[in-house]
């Protein structure tokens, strides 16, 4: 430094700059770096370099240090303050990014640390580019007290402001506890890594102290806990590099902001390709399951499908794919799991996905094989009415192109909720195997012909006759087609071609919602 006659020339100043930059790039202690490596975890800058295009990262606020004096940290003021922030590209497209550095203050958030994240959030929103947060920290920095809490609040506020405007992606690569979990919860997608990612409001020690319950970090807030039970983690990977690869793949389906269209990719899979294998997909027996993912794989480009929450509420599958090079969001009942019924978890999952697609101009394709809503006291007491309405609300509010294909069962209110014509679907198609009715033939006969069956001499035989008659008259797609509730009955082999042509038609769709501050969805 230029003190007491020290040289003030440009070379000396540049040497000082290089020294400071070098210090910032190795801000963590050797011990902390070694501990990170022993856990099989990459360092913050290694993660950024792996995720972004090579050589594209430009760091911002490298020389920031905390300004918390009088709290025992005056002699420990490393550069970066435990978070690396900046911008770069992924597949040539701009993104903003921050990565908490567990080797500096355990990645804990203080006032300066929070200000760096807030600055890059503001930049992402102004520039209209995705923001990616790599979380690996111990929550609020206790020494900084309310200043740290205030920093979290500013981050949360910006998460909410950016929601539906730019894609927000959270990657949990270590601990995330207390207030730190709420920023990821406000973002669009959460990624976790098995064995090293943990999220919880209160950790195992606090749980044991307060409730007496003994639980490990993995059981309480591990990746698979949040992927299968809580519905917090949308994507889970076996290791960090696989996780970062998945993030790049997800971004290939998303626009940079809500004013852009998702990126199209012209592949070698022709839109004219027939799907004759689908003619044999639906079993002859109405209660026999089949894998709807076989249908999805057949109709999308190159069979490529990125499933959203694959381990949670598997009775409804959602995900991203392309048809004719165009990105689509797919929602489909899965007959292999709970017969494809809608329940609390699947309704929330589907509602969230539909709203995400609508926010980012991604057309929706819905495959319907739904026998109804899940019955039972657990569902009713848990609020299936309120939660089921979330999926209904999401579809009703969506203004992107919407296409429905009914493959088999479409019963009752669940049929309406699965993007029916009556709630605004643009084009609705049905396979010849489709069954549109208030309920299944057996249930309908039991209700409509209750008295007749009670007095019939051979009730089983009469019941069978009535079921066959009801099936013939009502559970076929042609009654709905006559009334225009579906637009066409199609050969399953034509499904990909019909979807591609429909997307071509609907791509210029423009629809505006009534002017309002916001709707009051059933949260």
Could you walk me through the main structural features you see in this protein, from its secondary elements to its overall organization?
This protein is of the alpha/beta class. The protein has three domains: about 10-250, Alpha-Beta Complex (2-enoyl-CoA Hydratase, Chain A, domain 1); about 275-440 and about 475-505, 2-enoyl-CoA Hydratase, Chain A, domain 1, CATH 3.90.226; about 440-475, no CATH class. Helix content is about 40%, strand content about 15%. The protein contains 20 helices and 17 strands. The chain has helices at about 10-25, 30-40, 45-50, 110-125, 145-160, 180-185, 205-210, 215-220, 225-230, 240-250, 290-300, 345-360, 375-380, 385-395, 410-415, 440-450, 450-455, 460-475, 475-485, 495-505; strands spanning about 60, 85-90, 95-100, 130-135, 170, 175, 190-195, 200, 235, 305-310, 315-325, 325-335, 365-370, 400-410, 425-430, 435, 490. The strands form three sheets. Strands 10, 11, 12, 13, 14, 15, 16 and 17 form an eight-stranded mixed beta sheet that branches. Strands 1-2-3-4-5-7-9 form a seven-stranded mixed beta sheet, sandwiched between helices. Helix 12 runs parallel beside helix 14. The longest helix is centred in the first third of the chain and has 17 residues, at about 110-125. The termini are far apart.
């Amino acid at each position: 430094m230029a003190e007491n006659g020290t040289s003030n020339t440009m070379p000396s100043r540049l040497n000082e700059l290089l020294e400071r930059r070098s210090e910032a790039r190795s801000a963590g202690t050797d011990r902390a770096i070694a501990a990170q490596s022993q856990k099989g975890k990459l360092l913050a800058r290694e993660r950024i370099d792996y995720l972004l295009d090579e050589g594209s990262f430009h760091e911002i606020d490298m020389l920031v240090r905390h300004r918390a004096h009088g709290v025992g940290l005056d002699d420990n003021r490393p550069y970066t303050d435990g978070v690396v922030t900046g911008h770069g590209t992924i597949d040539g497209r701009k993104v903003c990014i921050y990565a908490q550095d567990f080797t500096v203050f355990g990645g804990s958030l203080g006032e300066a640390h929070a200000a760096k994240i807030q600055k890059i959030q503001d930049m992402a929103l102004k520039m209209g580019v995705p923001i990616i947060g790599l979380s690996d920290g111990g929550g609020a920095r206790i020494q900084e007290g309310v200043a740290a809490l205030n920093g979290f609040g500013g981050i949360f506020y910006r998460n909410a402001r950016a929601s539906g405007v730019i894609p927000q992606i959270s990657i949990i690569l270590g601990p995330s506890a207390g207030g730190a979990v709420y920023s990821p919860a406000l973002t669009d997608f959460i990624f976790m890594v098995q064995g090293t990612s943990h999220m919880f409001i209160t950790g195992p020690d606090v749980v044991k102290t307060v409730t007496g319950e003994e639980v490990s970090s993995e059981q309480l807030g591990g990746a698979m806990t949040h992927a299968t039970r809580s519905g917090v983690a949308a994507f889970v990977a076996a290791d960090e590099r696989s996780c970062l690869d998945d993030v790049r793949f997800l971004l290939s389906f998303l626009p940079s902001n809500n004013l852009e269209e998702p990126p199209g990719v012209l592949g070698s899979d022709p839109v004219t390709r027939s799907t004759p294998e689908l003619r044999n997909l639906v079993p002859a027996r109405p209660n026999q399951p089949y894998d709807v993912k076989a249908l999805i794989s057949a109709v999308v480009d190159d069979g490529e499908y990125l499933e959203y929450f694959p381990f949670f509420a598997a009775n409804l599958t959602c995900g991203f794919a392309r048809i004719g090079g165009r990105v689509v969001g797919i929602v489909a009942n899965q007959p292999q799991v709970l017969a494809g019924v809608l329940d609390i978890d699947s309704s929330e999952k589907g509602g969230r996905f539909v709203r995400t697609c609508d926010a980012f101009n991604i057309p929706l394709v819905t495959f319907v094989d739904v026998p109804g809503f899940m019955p039972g006291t657990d569902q009713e007491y848990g609020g299936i009415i309120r939660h089921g309405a979330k999926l209904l609300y999401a579809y009703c509010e969506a203004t992107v192109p919407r296409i429905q294909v009914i493959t088999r069962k479409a019963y009752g209110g669940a049929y309406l909720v699965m993007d029916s014509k009556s709630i605004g679907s643009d084009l609705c198609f049905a396979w010849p195997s489709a069954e549109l009715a208030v309920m299944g033939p057996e249930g309908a006969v039991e209700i409509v012909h209750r008295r007749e069956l009670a007095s019939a001499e051979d009730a089983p035989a009469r019941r069978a006759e009535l079921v066959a008659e009801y099936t013939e008259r009502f559970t076929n797609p042609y009654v709905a087609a006559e009334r225009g509730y579906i637009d066409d009955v199609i050969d399953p082999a034509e499904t990909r071609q019909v979807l591609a042509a429909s997307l071509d038609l609907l791509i210029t769709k423009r629809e505006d919602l009534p002017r309002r501050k916001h709707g009051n969805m059933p949260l």
